[in-house]
Amino acid sequence: MGISQDDYARHLAADSAALANAADRNLDREVVACPGWDVAELLWHVGEVHRFWTRTARANGDVQAIEVPRPARHELIAWFREGAGDLERLVRELDPDGKCWTWSPAASTAAFVPRRMAQETAMHRWDAQDAIGIAVPIDPDLAVDGVDELFDTFLPAQPARVDASQQGVVHLHATDVDVVWEARLDPSTVAGGRGTSHPATVGISGQASDLLLALWRRRPLTSLTVRGDTRLAGGLVGALDLT
Predict the structure, then answer these.
(1) Average pLDDT over residues 61-88
(2) 10-37: pLDDT as tens digits
(3) I need a labelling partner for 242 at 20 to 30 A (CA). Which of 34, 59, 117, 150 fits?
(4) Which residues are registered as beta bridge partners of 174?
(5) By mean pLDDT, which of 137-151, 157-171, 180-194 is the weakest?
(6) pLDDT at 57 > cutoff 80
(7) Residue 5: what are its φ and ψ, rounded to 5°?
(8) In angstroms, rounded to a whole number, what is the distance separating the alpha carbons of residues 48 and 68?
(9) Do residues 225 and 205 touch, judged by C-beta distance below 8 A?
């Protein structure tokens, strides 16, 4: 199992198209996972993010603030599709070893961009579809890569937010693809990754998409199978600052 740069481009294209399709005639729908947003605001956010990373990936290590004029509401979907297409072309042509600014100390090359943009778009595609009641699970391989990204890219970029009473080891098992991760929580850090090396205080299992959605606070932990200290399971989700 592994995600190639072409895979990221393929997922980006498919999820961008699905997001735009979900938004069509549904711009006023509330996005539950993003309080205060409707689908129009979600589409604007993802389109602006696409344009930011397209420009940043082309800047050879520099990052420049860009002001993207917000299109009129009736132009949002076409504007979004245009930016998504430009980003997809960039992803397909990008040198993954090239210089690129990122916000994570664990990622310092342009390889960050295809992965982050595929993951960002998949999650917000799910948000848009959820807003209209037709949410389709995230592709299992992409979801596994998304959990990997939480451990290897997000956690090194943020301070721990662990309650002193919520120390222990969480095992995560994606049952549909048989992949396991371990998260170790203590008051100073949250760390982990693929595989297990310590006995579990709590085990969380479910399909890869549901695991990723739960870690991103899109699905409740009750949608998964939790064995052991359920408070610690909630502590893991609470410790992940994904804002």
Answers:
(1) 92
(2) 999 999 999 999 999 999 999 999 999 9
(3) 59
(4) 179, 206
(5) 157-171
(6) yes
(7) -65, -35
(8) 7
(9) yes
Task: Tally the C-alpha atoms within 13 A of residue 85's C-alpha that lie toward its C-beta.
Answer: 7
Residue with tokens 């397209």: 54
- What do you get for the CA distance between the two ends of the chain, in Å? 28
**For residue 148, what are the contacts with CB-CB under 8 A and spacing of at least 6?**
181, 193, 194
HEC string of 134-179 equals CCCCCCHHHHHHHHHHHHHHHHHHCCCCCCCCCCEEEEEEECCCCE
Mean pLDDT of the chain: 93
| pLDDT number for residue 165 | 72
Residue 241, helix vs strand vs coil: coil
DSSP code for 24:
T
**Above pLDDT 90, what percent of the chain?**
81
C-alpha to C-alpha distance for 126 and 19, rounded to whole angstroms: 8
With H, G, I as helix, E, B as strand and everything else as coil, classify residue 77: helix
Closest C-alpha among 219, 9, 2, 228 to residue 113: 9
Per-residue confidence band for 64, with pLDDT thresholds at 50, 70 and 90: low
Residues 6+ apart with CB under 8 A from 178: none
- C-alpha distance from residue 181 to each of 18, 41, 177, 201 (Å): 29, 34, 12, 13
Tokens for 25, please give them: 């005639």
Nearest to 43 by CA among 137, 138, 121: 121
Residue indicated by tokens 């721990």: 160
**Tens-digit pLDDT profile for residues 130-144:** 999 999 999 999 999
